[in-house]
Amino acid sequence: MLKVGLTGGIGSGKSTIAEIFKVLGVRVFDADRAAKSIMNDNAGLREQIIQAFGHGAYSNGLLNRKYIADIVFNNPYRLEQLNALVHPAAIQAAEDWMLQQHAPYVIKEAALLFEAGSAGHLDVIIGVFAPQPLRIKRVMDRDNISRQDVMARMGRQVDDSIKMRLCDFVIVNDEQQLVLPQVVNLHKELLKKATDE
After folding, report:
1. Phi, then psi, of 110 in degrees rounded to 5
2. pTM of the entire structure?
3. Which pairs count as long-range contacts for 173-176, CB under 8 Å and 24+ apart, including other chains?
4. How far is CA 35 from CA 87, 93, 94, in A?
5. Segment 103-143, tens digit of pLDDT
6. pLDDT tens-digit series, residues 62-107
7. Domain 1-27+101-197: which CATH class?
8. What is the end-to-end Cα distance of the chain in Å, rounded?
9. Domain boundaries in the chain?
């Protein structure tokens, strides 16, 4: 079974691409959603987060996301500290999930595949590319935040020009080229690659 990564910068539309793969019958692991769940459900990780960030990190038994965000948002060291706790648990959760799947290939969707060090666990990486001005507009519209806030988030991710060069395949989601034919063609190629392995 091929282990496929799907990544792209914030606002690139990788979640939309993941949904198209799901419609085609491909199982998709949402690493970002899983990480949020793990921070609530994994007792060992909860304890580590409380030790690192204080008891305010949890409220009514759930991660206090605003409290954590206020600490890590403008502090690269504290963000790295949080990521060092969460990423290994999230990578393991994806590995465990993949072992339970029976399909020609499965997809792990993650914004920080390269940044988290999980790309090495995968056979193929798909990048989703969109021009930066379009990505900024999408995120401003979606999250109702300022351009400055979007740029700050982008600054914490590997530059898209570098990220796309690290990928085996790139889907262009620029609202000029149709994405559906790109995904369908790639699906066929991945099925063929999986049977050739």
Report:
1. -155, 135
2. 0.88
3. 173/8, 173/12, 173/13, 173/16, 173/17, 173/128, 173/129, 173/130, 174/129, 174/130, 174/131, 174/134, 175/130, 175/134
4. 8, 9, 10
5. 999 999 998 888 888 888 899 999 999 999 999 999 999 98
6. 999 889 988 987 788 998 899 999 989 889 999 999 999 999 999 9
7. alpha beta
8. 8
9. 1-27+101-197, 32-92
